[in-house]
Amino acid sequence: WEGRAIGAIRRWYADDCPMYTTSGPAAGVPAIVAGTLETLNAFPDRRLLPEDVVWSGDDRAGFLSSHRIIAPATHLGPGPFGPPTGRS
């Protein structure tokens, strides 16, 4: 969903895809989309700066990947981290 392309989640993730984030686990495309929108509401200027991706798998068995990113952002909206603080 780089570049705010939220619809790409539906294209690239399986319906039952598990995801583990700093906010906790999520399962399935609807939960991943909801979590992404919630994060973007709280941090509207968030950028994803990839450092590394480790992956395995193929198009028949599926893929497993781990993404290490730097995500600079400013807490400007309400969300899972509480009311906005205005802090980076």
Question: Overview of this structure, please?
Answer:
This protein is of the alpha+beta class and 88 residues long. The chain has 2 helices and 4 strands. The longest helix is centred in the middle third of the chain and has 14 residues, at 29-42. The chain starts with 6 loop residues before the first helix and ends in an 18-residue tail after the last strand. 3% of the residues are buried. The model has no long low-confidence stretch (mean pLDDT 89).
Task: Give me the secondary-structure topology.
Layout lengths: L6 H6 L5 E4 L2 E4 L1 H14 L6 E10 L3 E9 L18
Describe the structure using short key phrases.
88 residues; single chain; two-stranded antiparallel ribbon
Strand order within the widest beta sheet: 1-2
What is the beta-strand fraction?
25-35%
Number of helices: 2
What's the helix-strand series? HEEHEE
C-alpha termini separation: 22 Å
Main beta-sheet strand count, sense and barrel state: 2 strands, antiparallel
Instruction: Calculate Rg over CA atoms.
Output: 14 Å
The structure class reads alpha+beta
Low-pLDDT segments, ≥5 res: none
Shape: globular
Overall helicity: 10-25%
Number of strands: 4
Q: Taking all residues together, what is the mean pLDDT?
A: 89
What's the quick description here?
It contains two helices and four strands; from the N terminus they run αββαββ.
